[in-house]
Structure formats: C-alpha cells, structure tokens
Write the structure tokens for this entry.
Amino acid sequence: NNYVAIMAGGIGSRFWPKSRTSYPKQFLDILGTGKTLIQATFERYSKIVPTENIYVVTSEDYTDIVASQLPSLPKENIVAEPFRKNTAPCIAYIAFKIHEKNPDAVMIAAPADNHIPDFEKFSVVINKALDFVSHINALTTIGIKPTHPNTGYGYIQHEDIEVAPGIYKVKTFTEKPNLELAKAFIKSGDFLWNSGIFTWKCKTIIKSFEEHLPEIYELFYSEKEKLNTPAEEKIIEEIYSQCPSISIDFGIMEKASNVYIIPADFTWTDLGTWNSAYANMEKDYFGNAVAGSDVIVFDTHNSVIHAPEKKLVLVQGMEDYIIVDTEDVLLICKKDKEQEIKDYVAEVKRTK
Ligand code: GDD
Ligand code: MG
C-alpha cells in the first residue's frame, strides 16, 4: 500500500548558473559523490518501498533524463507534466493517479534535492510516518532542527504533547518568512524547518485539496477515470493549462488543521543554494570550498568557487563570495544574497 512520489520538476534557479532550465540541479552530482541528487533520492526510497511503487513526477522536458539516470525505474512510472505549475498540481496529479489504482494507498511526496547521508535514522522516521498515517487521516511532514534564519524554508511550531511516540500536532506553519520573521523564529527556539518530505493517505490529501484548493481538486476530480488510460496525456494537458501555479506549502500545509510533524534526528540538507553546497563541501584552511580543474586563490576567505571548465581561474581578495564559472556564464554574488539569484535569473531570462 505504500508509494513514493519524487517531485523532480523544479528548475533549481537559486543554483544558477550550474543548474539550468535545460538540465536542473536534481540531475547533477552537486557534491561530487558519483551520484546525481535524483539517483541518491531514488536509491534511498527504493529501500523503503518496491521500485514499481516509486513514481517520478517531472516536466515533460526531463523525462528522458530521468529514464537514463534511473534505468531500474519502470518507464510507466515517469509521470510527465506539460507545464510547470509548482508542487500543488504535481501532488494532486500523482495522488489522484495512485488513488485510482489503489484507494487505500499511502504516499510519500519527496523532493528530489535532499541530501540525507544517514539512511538508518531516516528509515526509522519515515517508517514511523507511514505507520501513523495509515491509522489516522493526517498530513505529516518531517521536521528539521534549524541552524540559521534561512528564508527559503517553511517554519513549523508544534504542540508540546506527543500524539504518538515522536509525533506532534502542528500549531503554525509559515512558508518562506521574511528575514526578520525567520530571525525571530530562530531566536524563540520553538520552530523546526519543514523538510518538504510529506506522508499521507492519497484520500486524505485529496480531501485537503477539496477543502483548500477546490479549483485544482475539481479539475482532477472530474477527469479522474481517465488517469492510467490512453486518454491521460491529453486530459492532463487540458487540466494543467487551467491549473493555478502554487506550492503545496502555501496552498495546503499553511492552512490545514490536520498537520503533524515528526522531528528528525538525522542530518538533512536541501541542496537548493550555493551556501548549502558550500556547507557540504570540503573547505581549505581559509574556509574556501573550491571545485575546479585549475583554480588559484589569493587572500580569499570563506568563499565558494566552482569552476569546472578547462580554464585558469584566479581569484584575489574575495571574502564571503559565490563565484561560479560555466562555459557561457560567470556568476559573482555575495554569499548572503544568494536567495536573490532566483530574481536576477528571472530578469535576465538566459537560463536555457
Ligand atoms: N514535478 C514537479 N513540478 N516538481 C516540482 C515543481 C513542479 O512544478 N516545482 C518544484 N518541484 C520539485 C523540486 O524539483 C524539488 O524537488 C521539490 O519539488 C521542492 O521544490 P523546491 O522549489 O525545491 O521547494 P523549496 O525548497 O523552495 O521549498 C520546499 O522545500 C523546503 C525544504 O527543502 C518547501 O516545502 C519548504 O517548506 C521546505 O522548507
Ligand atoms: Mg528545494
């Protein structure tokens, strides 16, 4: 009864220019482990559920990349989206699709860009979530102890009393707060980050769509019999062209009253930005994380320099900078302004 949907349709714009619209970060080996992020994610979940119960939902532009990177994933489990509409439509689609096959299905919706080195600890927590939601109509997420006021995450406050061992009811969920609020959350010591790894019964999340995103619910509900049939592709094209673009966090998690959290004790990183890569890369004596074939640094501190092209790169006098050189783009950005890379990219529109 357990299924996993790996959400792999993002464009990773904060990882620009390494991550490009045509080949985003989930398909890259960001940390130099020999595996791309989606390969590591797939491997993690294939130890939790059988491979035939794993789906990868992605943009139709990436289905070939997914097929080549995950040869053991059945081809029919690669689910293509005709438009990028953020995570709420993606989750609605896959929840309806699995529900049509198995009305009692429990699903994990997981990002493709998480770095979780300790599988054993992860496995205990995720199995706890699977067991919990099979008994109660709950939406669960895994909570991460925050380390700094990152404005790219969801912040969650929970009740003190456990409803089951290690599981708490969520009091407040605030998606991507501004810096001031994020600082206040961190200072209070009362908040966890949302990992974005959700577990629920398909029917529970479908009910939540009916309640909180009725427009999306109606679009899928009225055509649900066509899913898993030859008519699917065409109907999905129509549904998606009408679907609003919204994340599951803003659309449902902030609003629902049946949200529960399982605080995790494992190391977790959303490899979403250059600082998160920096944190997981090896540093030299001066705190520089350098990846490149020919990079020379002088009087430079706490910077990340990524220059894999066959080119000599010389850096002098930089402190707390992100420097990324690719074949056709050079980025130089202050480390504390990395959330803005997204906006600059949208402006230059040269992400291809
Ligand atoms: N199929 C599909 N379609 N996948 C998508 C789409 C889409 O339109 N948009 C994003 N995704 C995928 C991304 O590839 C990623 O694996 C996952 O969904 C989450 O999207 P992100 O864009 O990376 O979200 P985020 O990191 O800004 O925020 C989410 O994750 C944080 C933790 O990493 C939220 O859930 C936050 O609350 C959370 O803290
Ligand atoms: Mg992310």
Notes: The pocket of magnesium ion (ligand 2) is lined by residues 111, 113, 270, 272 (CB under 6 Å). The chain has eleven helices and 17 strands. Residues 275-348 form one domain.
